[in-house]
Design a protein that fits this description.
Layout (H helix, E strand, L loop, with lengths): L1 H20 L13 H14 L21 H14 L2 H15 L8 H6 L4 H9 L6 H37 L1 E2 L9 H7 L4 E2 L4 E2 L6 E2 L8 E8 L5 H15 L4 E8 L3 E3 L7 H6 L9 H10 L7 E6 L8 H13 L3 E8 L9 H9 L4 E4 L4 H10 L7
Parallel strand pairs: 5-6, 5-8, 8-9, 9-10
Antiparallel strand pairs: 1-4, 2-3, 6-7
Length: 387
């Protein structure tokens, strides 16, 4: 019995090694695949192999397994959705677009209906926006809307709850209800009333949290770099912009830029419109974008400016830094995010990041799940939760 288990375990190891190595000459396992294993291997080989068949890519060879045929690609997209979980499908789709140059095929409605929507696919569609024929545009919008609605469902409730709490705490009152007393500030305000014999403080003056009124309490400006490397950040920022705009106590402005500046605030009720109003790619003029944002600030002490950029500046660097310093001196809370995505920090201009940090605005990459906490800290004017 034990010998049979060992043999079965050995066969399973050979099968797994065969799937990893991909067959071909010199693979050495001698293991033949059938059924679902053969289908999975063919799907992987079409993307990562060099011969269009089941073998993997060899050194110096190009990947060319899917060819340029839309029916072949559509069939392959169906196969990978059959054999692999959604998270793996999304990675393979991204690799296929990058390795095999399938972007042009995404301009066909039939192809868009076959793909698994995700943030990276949205970024690719937005980069193709200007080249997209009318026959494809509505399908593309449906794909983008599906991704946006999923992100809103994941992020909106927590963002609203976190920021509503921050707005409540940012308002102080002197006659709070018991549940609203800020004990830390109350104790500090009454330290002169310390009674040594009782080892306690007599709180003659209470300090408490207010409750955010319906009137606008804070203003938020999202200034988003729409260069090609920032695609995922543009998607997330658009969703967060729509969520912030839905809160009556926050006045939200959304600005995107490359070498030109576009104010998309009037489209914030629909993040899909915002996304199709962007144009990924092109140069970068951060100074020009911040100049526009600065001109729209009317209440500096109640304003948070969030710059989302990899900081590669094509404009005037010294002017950019002077502008940030001027905004901070006026009371603006200035937040610099190198990325707003799940992928960590991209390549970025380290000199610019260091210069901004010296001005009191550390530059860091932020995940969508951390963003509400970052905004809450900025609204309350407390240290940012830099990861």
């Amino acid at each position: 019995m034990a010998g049979a288990e060992v043999r079965d375990g050995g066969a399973e190891r050979l099968r797994r090694w065969r799937m990893v190595l991909g067959g071909g000459e010199g693979e050495g396992t001698g293991c033949a695949l059938s059924g679902a294993d053969a289908g999975m291997d063919a799907a992987l080989g079409a993307l990562y192999g060099g011969d269009g068949g089941g073998g993997r890519k060899r050194a110096g060879e190009r990947s060319a397994g899917l060819g340029g045929s839309a029916p072949n690609v559509a069939r392959w997209l169906g196969d990978i959705r059959t054999y692999f979980p959604t998270s793996v499908v999304q990675v393979m789709q991204r690799d296929a677009i990058q390795r095999l140059g399938l972007s042009a095929l995404l301009l066909e409605p039939e192809m868009l209906e076959a793909v698994e929507p995700d943030v990276h696919l949205v970024g690719t569609l937005l980069s193709l926006n200007k080249a997209m024929p009318e026959t494809t545009r509505e399908t593309a919008r449906a794909v983008v809307r599906k991704v946006v609605e999923a992100l809103e469902k994941r992020l909106a409730s927590r963002t609203r709850a976190t920021l509503t709490g921050a707005l409540d705490r940012s308002a102080r009152i002197s006659r709070p209800r018991h549940a609203d007393i800020d004990w830390d500030r109350t104790i500090r305000a009454n330290l002169t009333n310390y009674l040594p014999e009782y080892r306690t403080v007599v709180p003659e003056r209470l300090v408490g949290y207010g409750r955010a009124a319906r009137a606008v309490k804070k203003e938020v400006v999202l200034c988003i770099d729409q260069s090609g490397s920032m695609a995922a950040s543009v998607v997330y920022a658009s969703v967060f912009g729509a969520v912030l705009a839905s809160m009556r106590s926050i006045a939200t402005r959304l600005v995107v830029f490359d070498t030109a500046v576009v104010d998309l605030t009037d489209q914030l009720d629909d993040p899909v419109d915002v996304l199709f109003g962007t144009q990924l790619g092109g140069g970068t003029d951060i100074n020009r974008a911040l100049a526009y944002c600065q001109s729209k600030i009317t209440r500096p002490a109640d304003t948070v400016v969030v710059l989302i950029s990899d900081l590669y500046e094509g404009g005037i660097r010294d002017e950019l830094l002077k502008r940030v310093a001027a905004m901070k001196a006026a009371g603006v809370e200035f937040v610099t995010l190198l990325a707003l995505s799940d992928e960590g920090a991209p390549a970025y201009d380290r000199d610019h990041a260091a210069a901004l940090a010296a001005l009191g605005s550390p530059a860091f990459a932020c995940t969508p799940d951390l963003f509400p906490e970052v905004m809450a800290a900025a609204l309350e004017k407390r240290p940012l939760p830099v990861p």
